[in-house]
Amino acid sequence: MAPPFPAVVFDLDGTLTVPGTTRPAPGVIALVEALHARDVPLAVATSASVGPARRVLAGLGVLACFTEVAGRGTDGVYAGKDAVVGEALLGLGITTAGPGTPMLGDSPADLDAAAAHGLVPVGVAWGASRADALRAAGACAVLGHPDELWSLRAS
Question: Which residue has the higher pLDDT, 59 or 3?
C-alpha cells in the first residue's frame, strides 16, 4: 500500500508543541507515529536552532520518526523560513514536492514558505495564529485537531 502522503513537513513550535513550550500539542505524537508507521517521510522546518529542536523531538519521543530536522545553523544564522523549508526538503531528498505534500504550520510565514516550495500549506488552529489569519495567509485547510490531516490524503 502506498503511503497516504509523499512526505509531510512540520513546523515545531506551535505545531508539534504547544506554543512557547516543549509539551506536545494534543494529538500530534499519535499523528507523527502513524505517519511514520505508514512510511511517510517526515521533516521538521523550524526557526529554532537544530540542536535544541532535535532535543525537543527526542524529549517527545519522536526524533527517530523524522528523516530531517532543519533550522538555524550552529552559527546562529537564520536565512528565513523559506530557506529552512528548502533545506528540510533537500534532507528528504526532494527537489520538487510531489502533489499533495503538506506542510503544517501555525504562522503565515510557515504557509508562505510551504507555498514557495510547492507544498500544500496547512494551518493548525492550536498554534500561535488564529484560523482566520491562517486562511488569509493562504492555508488550503486549517486543522482543528491533528487527526484532520487524514482528510487531506493525496490521491
Answer: 59
